[in-house]
Amino acid sequence: MSKGLLGAIAAIIIAVVMMFSSYNGLVSMNENVTGKWAQVENQLQRRNDLIPNLVNTVKGYAAHETQVFKDVSDARAKLGGAKTVAETSAANSQMNSALSRLLMVAENYPDLKANTNFTQLQDELAGTENRIAVARKDYNDAVQGYNAKIKSLPASLYAGAFGFTARDYFKADEAAQKVPQVKF
Predict the structure, then answer these.
(1) Contact between residue 154 and residue 22 where contact means Cβ atoms under 8 Å apart
(2) Of 42, 38, 43, residue with least CA distance to 128
């Protein structure tokens, strides 16, 4: 065998080994993104589980605020039915708005604000919101690494052929970009 043929065979073997290694890296990164998304969903579910208790506590004090309770219930159902990152992001935004209105109603009832059950639920909800923020950041970091990998050489040459496509980021609602007005 000639040296040229041996060199070509060695180059092909090296290229195949590199492709398999890169493919396995893509699989690992894709699974990491999927796992991070599951954690976002887990935290959103935790918040969804807390909300009925919070609503029922507020209902006891402010039974006439039915529209606020309906908005929270509708937002909770929409979030529970979201299937994609975009749907979840939109539903999460609706939930944040509904919860803000619910907590504003609670501000009008001093007895409610002093209720230990309400304050405990409010603290749990605040902690859950922090967990959601961390989970979203972790997810977006994983998506960034994965998307960069499938768009970089040599993975970009074959990633699409193996079904690896760019993943969506969890984005804030457009309303979140407006500066809130604070009035005293």
Answers:
(1) yes
(2) 43
Instruction: Give the model confidence (pLDDT) of 33-46 as tens digits.
Output: 999 999 999 898 88
CB 141: neighbour CB atoms within 10 A? 13
Report the sign of the C-alpha dihedral through residues 81, 86, 91, 96, in that order. Answer: positive
- In Å, the largest CA–CA distance within the chain is 91
Please write down the long-range contacts of 139-142, taking CB distance under 8 Å and 24 or more positions apart.
139/33, 139/36, 139/37, 139/39, 139/40, 139/170, 140/169, 140/170, 141/36, 142/29, 142/32, 142/33, 142/35, 142/36
The answer to whether the CB of 26 falls within 8 A of the CB of 155 is: yes
Residue 183: per-residue pLDDT: 47
- The pairs formed by 131-134 with CB atoms below 8 angstroms and a separation of 24 or more are 131/43, 131/46, 132/40, 132/43, 132/44, 132/47, 132/92
